[in-house]
Design a protein that fits this description.
By secondary structure, the chain is an alpha+beta fold. Helices cover about 30% and strands about 30% of the residues. The relative contact order is 0.27. InterPro entries: Cyclic_Pdiesterase.
């Protein structure tokens, strides 16, 4: 399986990794260690099968003139009956456009009509912990709601990852290709 993910600026990436480590130290969640090569991200799309070379060429073309996207994480949430805790960004026009235009341009690759990352189904999020029991989910929520406040972040890069499964569980998610987005700040 493959996914297109939005990677975050280094400051935000480090903050989320710190949360992952804190949850591990408190024996609440081991999310960061469950998958080799895991980075904080927002998944944009998923694909069961893919011609990697064709996708890379298409990503190069499509994202060549795409600017970084400013986002604000100001919600902490969970998917029902999932044991997952995540940060959710405000759905801005820029974030919505990034997602919609990706799916419009790359629709020929869509091989999973049930994907939760398709327009109309997508809940943008950055996972903090998953596969938690109800008690651990409550602990994680309590910790994160005290520790975190609004996070102003940027999507700075789009990456193609391949998910490596063993016994139905993802054990690695190596980056196949990434494309840095154009900075929308003017250097003086």
């Amino acid at each position: 399986m493959f996914a297109i993910i939005a990677l975050l600026d280094k400051k935000t990436e480090n903050l989320i990794k710190e949360i992952w480590q804190d949850l591990r130290k408190q024996s609440i969640s081991f999310y960061a260690e469950e998958v080799e090569d895991r980075k904080p991200h927002i998944t944009i799309a998923s694909y069961n099968h893919l011609d990697k070379d064709e996708m890379i060429q298409s990503m190069d073309q499509f994202y060549d003139s795409t600017f970084q996207v400013e986002i604000t994480f100001n919600s902490l949430g969970t998917f029902l009956n999932s044991g997952t805790l995540f940060l959710s960004p405000t759905m801005s026009t820029s974030l919505s456009n990034l997602h919609r235009t990706h799916h419009d341009f790359f629709k020929r690759f869509n091989d999973n009509p049930d994907s939760l990352y398709l327009p109309g189904k997508w809940v943008p999020h950055c996972t903090l912990a998953n596969r938690l029991s109800h008690d651990k989910l409550c602990e994680a929520f309590k910790y994160c709601s005290k520790k975190l406040s609004t996070i102003d972040a940027r999507i700075t890069e789009i990456a193609l990852i391949e998910t490596i499964l063993t016994d139905g569980r993802c054990i690695a998610a190596p980056e196949v290709y990434s494309k840095k987005l154009l900075s929308n700040t003017i250097e003086v």
